[in-house]
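We were asked to recover a plausible sequence for a given structure. The inputs and outputs are reproduced exactly as logged, with field labels preserved.

PROBLEM: sequence recovery
POSITIONS: 235
GIVEN STRUCTURE:
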């Protein structure tokens, strides 16, 4: 029971909004010919705020998502998602990870108000202090997650997302000594993206299983409305 509570709590980590790629069969079925007209427009800016997690995080996770059409049919979209106050160190599992990239993804419409999505986000340690050519560093990606799931527009301004987060290591860490992750059976970490001549391609290698994958979690975001301009000071 304790491990399950931890798992459900960490889903709201603040590591941000993961997914398996949309299958080719789905792509063919989603060419727009068999889909009903879209009930609402999903494109726009969406904002959300979850609850604080007692005993884990003291602040709620604040999120923002930007969704943009990627083809004229209105069936495919790109998205940029971000946990504004996320925890790149992943509760201390990757203490050197102090930087996080913007989460990016693809959304495909599946019905009048339903969608499937896949997104990915990377976490890294900053560059070293190189001083001459040959010593400069680009920093190092330490791990990443793949976020996958579904979206549904409840109305024009309310978007409900159900997501599954799957985490992969980008480094060989060897033995893991961490009370929480050890309790989930995670005892070692190895590089799970080392194809493409050893440098990786930014995706988990074929056959790699995520070192942790959290159960599906739902979140609700609201569309950013047009706000009235306040009266400036002194006017």
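RECOVERED SEQUENCE:
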């Amino acid at each position: 029971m304790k491990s399950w509570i931890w798992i459900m709590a960490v889903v709201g980590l603040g590591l941000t909004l993961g997914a398996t790629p949309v299958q080719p069969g789905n792509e063919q079925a989603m060419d727009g010919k068999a889909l009903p007209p879209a009930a609402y427009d999903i494109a726009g800016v969406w904002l959300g705020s979850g609850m604080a997690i007692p005993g884990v995080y003291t602040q709620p996770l604040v999120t923002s998502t930007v969704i943009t059409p990627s083809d004229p049919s209105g069936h495919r979209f790109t998205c940029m998602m971000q946990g504004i106050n996320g925890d790149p160190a992943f509760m201390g599992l990757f203490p050197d990870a102090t930087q996080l990239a913007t989460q990016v993804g693809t959304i495909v419409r599946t019905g009048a108000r339903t969608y499937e999505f896949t997104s990915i986000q990377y976490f890294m340690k900053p560059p070293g202090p190189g001083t001459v050519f040959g010593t400069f560093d680009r920093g190092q990606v330490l791990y990443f997650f793949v976020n996958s799931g579904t979206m549904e527009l409840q109305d024009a301004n309310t978007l409900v997302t159900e997501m599954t987060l799957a985490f992969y290591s980008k480094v060989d860490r060897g033995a893991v000594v961490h009370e929480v992750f050890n309790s989930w059976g995670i005892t070692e970490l190895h590089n799970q993206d080392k194809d493409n001549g050893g440098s990786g391609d930014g995706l988990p290698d074929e056959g790699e299983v995520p070192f942790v994958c959290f159960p599906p979690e739902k979140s609700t975001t609201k569309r950013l409305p047009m706000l009235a301009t306040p009266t400036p000071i002194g006017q």
